[in-house]
Amino acid sequence: MQRTKISFAILAAIVGLGTLLSGCGEQEEVKPAASNSSPSTDNAFAKKMKITMFNQGTFNAAAPIPPRDEDIQRQMLEKAMNIDLDMMIPQAGQSTTKLNTLIAGGDIPDLIFLKSRSDLAQYYDQGVLADLTPYLDQFPELQKRFSSDSWEAMSYQGKTIGVPGYDNVNGISRSFFIRNDWLKKLKMEVPTTPDELFEVMKAFTEKDPDGNGKNDTYGFIGGMNKEGNLQTYGFDSLMWMFGVNPPSAIEVKDNEPVFLFIDPKMKEALAYINKMMAAKVVDPDWVTMTSPDLLDQKLFKGKVGFMIRDARRLEPDYQQKMKEISGEVPEWIVIPPMKGPYGDQIVERKSFQGNSWAISKKADKDKIIRILSMLNYLFTDEEAYPNFAYGIKGIHWDVVDGKIKNKTSELSKEMKEKYLWVDHYRMPRRGDDAEYFSFQNPKTAEAFVNNQKYVGPTLPGNLLTADPSDTLATDRSRFINESLVKFMTGKDPLSNWDNFLQTLDTKFDMQKYKETAIKQFKEAGLIK
């Protein structure tokens, strides 16, 4: 598959992952057979082949690999491809050391899962990995399985050197939560614009929505991580209403890079948040919200009316925590993101496709074809899909009323622990597959599905790699984050915006960063 020029609008990657396992009950074990539609041991695969796999893409590195006669998924792969599969699972935190040791000893695994694009490029430069370009046209279904932007991330120096590892998950962790019971009490509607949202937050703060006669509620709370970065803690989601975000939010428009963190629209976004701060609708504890757990505590206490949290907080376990902490289960609902003044309506941007499958350069043509055939089967065979995405038929899933039903949440703790190893094979699960998560509350699945409509494409800035000669990169990023916080809190008036831009140019050499971006975008075919 040849490298192609693509627009920023399709530079997306499906990202994150998460397995939600809870519940009780046991099922009798039923061993599934390989799919009838899968590539079987025909003439093309008449000769059995040994394939070694370095699988650091497992969803549970601590789970032991079971014996072959108990490993249903392994049996399916071996039967479908006529192979002996030797899978290595490195311990958490030791993946890079283990892989480098194997490479140094000349014992390079045939199939390697890599967690970042930089690792993919590095190992290719070292002569470890094969160029897959000559072979991928033989696998049109595999090419269609992943989006163009995911394949673009596999492209390096004009060659395709990897296959996307697995879909990342979007549309769940940054859901827009609002207290519907408070809306009802105050006779207000679900907000749909930034202005409507502000009025709702103001009412939540000033009109005693919980009816306890105390001035102890707030319209919103966000936070920032311990490094002072605003990303992922709520304020960045408010910025998306204006189509902007902190680093590395870089768009390409009219053949030019657009740095959204210094775009004029960022000034409008900061003015909006500053308006919130001035009206005291933001819980003042936001400055201490440096982890998701702390924000969850605010959600459980129910004294804030609007938050950006994970849709899985609608699940029974979290609902129980709300009852234990606040004495009630607030009527939290997940709503669509506000539509901003420029038409932006974004929950989040798709995560960049960093993870990949790579093949050893030592593999000959026949082995490369066999491995790609295995990946093609793993990711595109619909009959095989539930056996890898969900687990073992009759235990983790079954067919109920003619439809596949994930039953993982019904398993006892003992059964879950017995079959932890199925997590080694879950990579084919699709990032938008609500059934995979085995949600117990239908409202969680509904929120997840609805949020998919508002997941924007990832931005080209994710393709950029650090320039070693840019010695001011770390200080520049810190200055940008600190300045944005000062503007939104009012510690620095927005009348100083032009001074901020000038300081970026004169003290932190913003021009060098721009030149690096332009150079790499040209190499990627995004700028002519």
From TrEMBL:
<protein>
    <recommendedName>
        <fullName>ABC transporter substrate-binding protein</fullName>
    </recommendedName>
</protein>
<dbReference type="InterPro" id="IPR006059">
    <property type="entry name" value="SBP"/>
</dbReference>
<dbReference type="Pfam" id="PF13416">
    <property type="entry name" value="SBP_bac_8"/>
</dbReference>
<keyword id="KW-0564">Palmitate</keyword>
<dbReference type="InterPro" id="IPR050490">
    <property type="entry name" value="Bact_solute-bd_prot1"/>
</dbReference>
<keyword id="KW-0732">Signal</keyword>
<keyword id="KW-1003">Cell membrane</keyword>
<keyword id="KW-0472">Membrane</keyword>
<keyword id="KW-0449">Lipoprotein</keyword>
